[in-house]
Structure formats: structure tokens, C-alpha cells
Design goal:
Radius of gyration: 18 Å
Order of helices and strands: HHHEEEEEEEEEHEEEEEE
Shape: globular
Number of helices: 4
Strand content: over 45%
Structural class: mainly beta
Number of strands: 15
Distance between the termini: 49 Å
Largest sheet: 15 strands, antiparallel
């Protein structure tokens, strides 16, 4: 059963914890051990996804500003070599979010997420997270069988929705979407596993813009992720995301007004892109 996100899910969490968690929505050697707990499904793909967006060895680095303060760094990486999980060839993807030393006094964050994603379907096979956020610590793993629509996680076994994603695989899968014929207001729904539950999310296409970035002027696609109106976000439309208007579709900027302060995330470095960037010359 898909559960709609509710404000209560966030009300008891610290602001910085939610910022880092939301950004990484934008894990897993250890997870592959847990993958052995379920038999490998029959070797026919659940779906076939055309991927022109990313490949092995890609690295992206982001700077996070909270108000006027430089607060954190987020790194995304597709490991340079294929991995094998439940007899499937997979991409091994890692996302690591951490506050800088000058911000650790407020809330020290060291979050790591990993996922192994099937190269054909771009569906997650094994996922792992390790969170350290102030005094809060949490770990989770999930091993997915998409044919049976079940997963084994830290607390047991559960049914999952068709083509369920985790946080990191959702970011990379979304990059493969074809926006060439998208119209303003068009939405793209998907289902995400997080902390032993399923959630229904969506992103809205807003149009195209040219923005100034650390890498130069870039042609971008403007998107609006679904948000929760709560003690952190003032309005469901308070966050805007820009991705490159090219085959890579890499996130370039995230911007949001918060109940307390504002948030801005910018791409600062890239390496190993599959296609040229949409630079305006």
C-alpha cells in the first residue's frame, strides 16, 4: 500500500537533518551481503530503460548554503567498475552528505547512502544507508525482488510497489526521462522505499531557463519536486530544481525558502559525464 507523505513525518526532526535528507532525494558493499538472503529472480528484466544520462566513473560535487552560511558538501558517485548483486550486473552508486567543520557546532551531519542498481531496468537491487545527524544515528538496508514485489529490510519483509526505487536510484532514474515534449505543469510520479515504508512522490515540469552556475552559463530544465508543508517548508511549491537540458540531466541547482532561513545547493564540480554539458557559449 502506497502511503502519502504526511507533515507528521518531519515535525519531530531537526531542521538540518531534514535539509540533508531532502537534498539527497534529490547504498553497497555491505548491502550486497544482505542480498544473499533472497534468491536471485529469474534472469529476465522487469523492464528495460534506455540510459543515455550517466555511466561508470561519474562524480558530482555540491555546495550547500543555509541562508548566508556555507553549510555542507554533498558528493554523488557512480563507481568506476560494474558490480554484481544477486547475479545481476549493477551500477554501484554512493551519495555522501556532510556538514563542513565550521557548521558542525550547529548540527554535525555525516550521511552515507549506497545502492546497487540493475544496469538494464535501473531498479535497485540492494540499498544501504548510514546516518549520523547530531546525536541521532540510524542504519537501514533493503534487498529488492521486483518480480515478486517484495523486499527484505532491517526489520523484516514487506510488499513494495511496482518499479519501487530508493532515494539514490530515484535520482539517477529520473535523469533518464525524456523531457523533449514536456509541457509546463506535466507531472512525473514514482514510488520510493524509505525506512521500511513506501511513499508516492512526483515532480512537475516548469519549463526551461538559462542559469549562471559555477561551471558557466547552462541551459536547464526547471522542475518542482513535491514537498511537505510543515515546520521546515512553508509551501508545497517552495522548492525549485534545475537540471541540465542535455542528455546528462545532472542536477545543477536546488533552491528553497524555508520557515527559518533559505536553502541553496549548487553544483561545483563534475567528472566523467557521459555527454557534453549544455553550456551557453
Amino acid at each position: 500500500m502506497v502511503r502519502k507523505l504526511k507533515p507528521e513525518l518531519l515535525r519531530n526532526s531537526a531542521v538540518m537533518k531534514k535539509l540533508i535528507g531532502c537534498l539527497i532525494i534529490w547504498m553497497a558493499t555491505q548491502a550486497s551481503v544482505f542480498a544473499q538472503q533472497i534468491p536471485a529472480p529469474v534472469d529476465t528484466p522487469v523492464r528495460v530503460v534506455k540510459n543515455n544520462a550517466f555511466t561508470f566513473g561519474e562524480k558530482l560535487k555540491y555546495r550547500v548554503h543555509y541562508g548566508f552560511m556555507n553549510a555542507a558538501i554533498i558528493d554523488f558517485e557512480v563507481k568506476p567498475a560494474p558490480s554484481t548483486t544477486t547475479n545481476k550486473k549493477t551500477f554501484h552508486m554512493v551519495a555522501y552528505g556532510r556538514t563542513i567543520s565550521a557548521f558542525d557546532w550547529f548540527m554535525k551531519v555525516r550521511d552515507k547512502y549506497e545502492t546497487h542498481v540493475d544496469q538494464v531496468s535501473l531498479l535497485p537491487i540492494a540499498y544501504y544507508k548510514d546516518q549520523l545527524e547530531g546525536s541521532y544515528k540510524d542504519k537501514d538496508y533493503a534487498v529488492f525482488n521486483h518480480k515478486a514485489q517484495v523486499c527484505i529490510h532491517e526489520k523484516g519483509r514487506m510488499k513494495i510497489e511496482k518499479d519501487a526505487l530508493d532515494l539514490i536510484s530515484a535520482v539517477y532514474y529520473f535523469r533518464t526521462f525524456d523531457f523533449s515534449k514536456a509541457t509546463p505543469g506535466q507531472t512525473y510520479p514514482f514510488n520510493i522505499y524509505l525506512d521500511n515504508k513506501m511513499y508516492s512522490l512526483s515532480v512537475k515540469f516548469m519549463g526551461r531557463e538559462i542559469i549562471d552556475s559555477d561551471l558557466g552559463k547552462l541551459r536547464c530544465i526547471k522542475l518542482r519536486p513535491q514537498l511537505i508543508v510543515d515546520r521546515v517548508f512553508k509551501d508545497a511549491d517552495d522548492m525549485t530544481l534545475w537540471i541540465t537540458d542535455d542528455a546528462n540531466h545532472i542536477p545543477v541547482r536546488v533552491q528553497s525558502e524555508l520557515r527559518i532561513g533559505s536553502l541553496k545547493v549548487d553544483l561545483t564540480e563534475q567528472k566523467g559525464l557521459r555527454s557534453p554539458l549544455a553550456l551557453v557559449k
